[in-house]
Amino acid sequence: MPLALLALAIGAFGIGTTEFVIMGLLPEVAADYGVTIPTAGFLVTGYALGVVLGAPLMTVLGTRVPRKRMLMLLMGLFIAGNVLSALAPAFGVMLAGRVVASLAHGAFFGIGSVVAAGLVGPEKKAGAIAMMFTGLTVANVVGVPLGTLVGQTAGWRLTFLIVAALGVLGLLGIARLVPELPRPEGVRIRHELAAFRNVQVLLAMAMTVLGFGGVFAAITYITPMMTNVAGFADTSVTWLLVLFGLGMVAGNLIGGRFADRALMPMLYVSLGALAVVLAVFTLTAHTKAGAAVTVVLIGALGFATVPPLQKRVLDQAAGAPTLASAVNIGAFNLGNALAAWLGGLVIAAGLGWTAPNWVGAALAASALVLALVSGALERRTAGTHPAGGGVGGSGGSGGPAVAAPAAGAVPAHH
To answer: Global pTM?
Structure first.
C-alpha cells in the first residue's frame, strides 16, 4: 500500500475524532450552555447535515483544483471550524462551528476514496479505501476516548482545541506525503451527475443512510444510556468508547478484505447481524458486561459495511465516481443525522434511554432489505446480459467493476 494512504489516514483521524468525540461530551456541553441533552444532540445532527450539504458542494467547487491542494484546503476549513467550536460563547455559535468543520468532511473522504482507489490495482481498491478509513476508526480507539477524558476533566473546549491541532497535523501530513496529482481533466458536472441515474448507485446510497444510521441511533446517546441504565460511572464512558473504536477498526479491516472478494454477501451478513445486535442491545444495556460486549459488536458490524458500500458506489459510478463518492460520504452522515434526531424523539417521548436501539435495529433491517433488492436486480441484469456481467461491469458477487483502466492506472478524469 502506498505511503500516501498514511497521509489520508492522518486526516481521517482528525476528522473522525471531531465527529465522534461530541457524543461522549453531550452532558458537559448541555450543562455549560444550559440546554437539554436531546437539544445538545443537535450538535451531532447539525454536523451530519453539514456533511450532507458540504460533500457535493465542496466536491463541485474542487473539480478544477488539483486534488492535493483541495485536500489541504479542506483540512484548513476543518481546523477553522474546530477553533470556532472551542471558543463559542453560545450554543448557536458552537453549532455553527460544528457545521463549518463538517463542510470539509464529505469532500475529504469522497476525494480521498477516489485517490486511494486510484493508487492501487483493481483487486486492492476496497483494501486501499479501508486503509484510509482506518484513520477514522483508530480515532475512536485513541482520539475520541482521550478527547472525552480531557473534556470531562479539563473542559470540553480544550478537547476541540486539541482536535484543531490534529487538523494541523493532518494538513502537514498531506503536504508531505501525498504526491502532486494532476488537476482532473475533462470533468463535467453533468457527466458526474449522470451517475445518479443508475438505480444501483441510489440503492447503495440508501443502504448507507439506513445501515450506518442504525449505528448512530444507539451510539449518539451512549453516555446517558450507559450511565443511567447500565450503571457505569461517567468516567467509564471513555473505556466504552475505546471498545466501540476497537470494534470499528476490526470491522473496517474485515469489511475491506472481504469486499474485494464477495461484496454483496459481505453486506448481507453485516447488515443482518447489525439489526439483530441493535435489537438485543435493548436487553444487554441493563448489564455492564452485556453492554460492553454489545458496544464492540455494534462498532464492528457497523463499520464492516463502510468499505463495501463505498466501493459499491465507486463500482457502479465507475465512469464518474468523484461526486458520487463524496455524496455517499454525505449519505453516511445523513443517516447519522436522521438517527440522532429519531433517537432524541423517542427519548423525549418518554420511551426510555434504550429506545434508540429499536430505532437503530429498524434502520439496519431496512438497509438489509435494500441490499437484497440490489443483489436481485444485479443478478437479473447479469442474466439478461451474461457477457457484460451486469450494469457497471460488476458481477453478481459485487466484485471489482473498476477494472476498465489498466491495473494500477488512474483514469484520465481522476
So the answer is: 0.72
